[in-house]
Amino acid sequence: MKQLTRSHTPWQTILFCCLLSLFPTQADETSGELEVVARLDQAPGNITVTEDERILISLHQHYSPTLRVAEVIDGSRLVPFPNSEWNDQDRPDAERLDSVLGIQVDTERIVWMLDNGMRSGITPKLVGWDLKNDRLYKTIDLPEPVSLPNSFLNDLAVDRDSDHIYIADPTRGDQPALIVVDIAAGTARRVLESHVSVSPEQVDLVIGQQPALIRRPDGSTFRPRVGVNPIALDTDNEWLYFGPMHGTAMYRIRTADLRNVSLTAEDRGKAVAFFGNKPVSDGSSVNHAGEVYISDIGNHAIGVIQPNGDYVQLFHDPEILKWPDAFSFGPNDWCYTVANQLHLGPVLNAGEDSSKAPYKIIRFRQPEGGVTGR
Q: Which residues pair with residue 276 across a beta bridge?
């Protein structure tokens, strides 16, 4: 699968198209490719890549995996992370991981794991693991009213400049919100609850003419509407970009406005700005050029929202990009993502599991670069 296009000024676009028509085989060699770097027998959730190219993933809870978090070794082997004890279901709640999706290594080499606690119905928490010293750094509980009984804490963005973490909670209902965590204080606040920027639109997710369907206990099905999901910081930690999974708009807000406890809910809502158009999407990341990479799950694609707000599809591959999910920049200008086939898994496929291993980890060259780990 080859890269389709990038943004150009008009004369560059014309020249590029002319060259492409004259030398089609050469264009394929120079346009960039998707590279499969791992084939797994369990479906990944989110991903983070360290400065020394360690690939760490959560295992997606929709598949009830035995592991919660793992390191990918030799392109196929999964080793429990941070160790087998933290993946042991029989340990006390405070000493184990229950159901992790969001995962991100920060600039201090702390791996933050967002445990939504949904497997066992336990209190959600953040677990920070110190890679330098291979030990627990911090655990931050996220009880009510920060999280709600219908919460689905999904993804996170870590800002060590201000020592804060921002969490997306689409919920399983009508109260989606962002959560702002003060790392040093170990406290958290729920903000922008039910604001338009975090709330789903009335759009379906359709993949290959098949809509995503959730089966109710009585056997009937419905088409889901999921709130805020993609969430990412720019490389200067000035702006947080986010939007509903089932939505066509990407928004942003200054992180200073999220941290400002003196702002009223109304004023904070007014601080949110529309950024650009997007497809139904799951994961995102921002490069040094201010471009927002985003998964285009309905089209088996990866795209980018340019600084002017325009959306451009970069890669399209129905065989490789079966539900591209989270992103992580790694060293040497690589950007990584996962393909976990969620639309074929039981939760979004009316109770039927049509997914098939191997599930893939993919990367592509990203010349502008980004912050490693996010």
A: 250
Question: Measured between alpha carbons, how far is residue 118 from residues 100, 146, 296 in Å?
Answer: 9, 15, 26
Predicted pLDDT at 6 = 38
Q: Is 268 helix (H, G, I), strand (E, B) or coil?
A: helix
Query: What CA–CA distance (Å, rounded) separates 132 from 343?
Result: 37
Tokens of 342: 């969620």
The whole-angstrom separation of Cα 79 and Cα 215 is 33
Q: What is the DSSP annotation of 7-70?
A: ---HHHHHHHHHHHHH-HHHHHHHS-B-EEEEEESS-EEEEEE-TT--EEEEEPGGG--S-SEE
DSSP 8-state secondary structure symbol assigned to residue 259: H
Is residue 23 over pLDDT 70? no
Sheet holding 273-277, edge to edge: 228-233, 239-244, 249-254, 273-277
Cβ proximity of 100 and 167 under 8 Å: no
71, pLDDT greater than 60: yes
Structure confidence at residue 366 (pLDDT): 86
The confidence band for 211, taking pLDDT boundaries of 50, 70 and 90, is very high
- Asked if 129 contacts 110 with a C-beta cutoff of 8 angstroms, the reply is yes
Q: Determine the Cα–Cα distance for residues 20 and 96; give it in Å rounded to an integer.
A: 54
Helix (H, G, I), strand (E, B) or coil at 310: coil
**Cα 92 to Cα 100: distance, rounded to the nearest angstrom:** 16
Structure-token pair, residue 243:
């939007």
First-last CA distance in the chain: 24
7 has a pLDDT exceeding 70: no
| Token pair in block for residue 199 | 């709330």
CA distance 152 to 282: 14
In this prediction, residues 19-29 reach a mean pLDDT of 32
Q: What is the DSSP string of 166-219?
A: EEEE-TTSS--EEEEEETTTTEEEEESTT-TTTSPPS---EETTEE-BEE-TTS
